[in-house]
Amino acid sequence: MKRKIITLVVLVALAFSSAWSQAAAAGGERTVEESYLQDPLEIMIIREQAYSDSKDMKLVALQYIGQALDEGRASPEIRKALDYLATESSLTVVRAGGVGRALNNYPDVRREACLMLGQIKTVEAKDTLLKVVLVDTEPMVIAAAIRSIGKIGLMTGDDVTQTVAFIINRFDILFPDNSLAFESLVALEALAEINNGIKDPAAIKAIMKIADGNYITPVKQKAKDLLSKLRKYSAASSGSGK
Fold first, then answer.
1. Distance (Å, rounded) from C-alpha 65 to C-alpha 59?
2. Which helix (H) or strand (E) holds 156?
3. Strand, coil or helix: what is 88?
4. Which pTM was predicted?
5. Neighbours of 207 (CB within 10 A)
6. pLDDT per residue over 158-191, tens digit each?
7. Using the 8-state DSSP alphabet, how is residue 136 labeled?
């Protein structure tokens, strides 16, 4: 019965996608009003797929969300679906028999959702990603969330830089991860470019830890280059009297 329901949802989604494509081809670009009228059906399908127990359905949901984002249709409902997909199993765990293994632990789904949240440059998207960074346990998911945080570029005080610094320190103590360290550096570099530097001492110390830590040479060099850039930002800021 479950398989029949999943198949039905897929068929409805495909039919919707086909009808939407044909309408767009026949009538050219849609107006805002036309987009609004057609969005509820699309959102309903995406929501049902995202909240499904099936990993395949979640992947289909991500496919449709990606299409919506590419077309500039990043609605609050789309973001909420990504919020759920990015944090599922971290915040909502479904276990076999209530105490067994997690049945909804799909790191690749969470990673893709985090990457897509980076295209929704809102405070809400940033806050979800910060939550992922703090509660998820998979380095590849955390790295994706940090990458997207850098793309969004929004900071409220030192909330972002302190979170990234915390993760760098946590993994440096437990198990240094080159990919995670590199993504952290890329994110901090992007934040520095958007905000004319980084003044958070915790973030600067974390970068120094990578530069002198047990990491591969390219990662350590990236950290050293970033420290050099931050010094230039600081010198420019002092020179301008800020």
1. 10
2. none
3. strand
4. 0.77
5. 25
6. 999 999 999 999 999 988 999 999 999 999 999 9
7. -
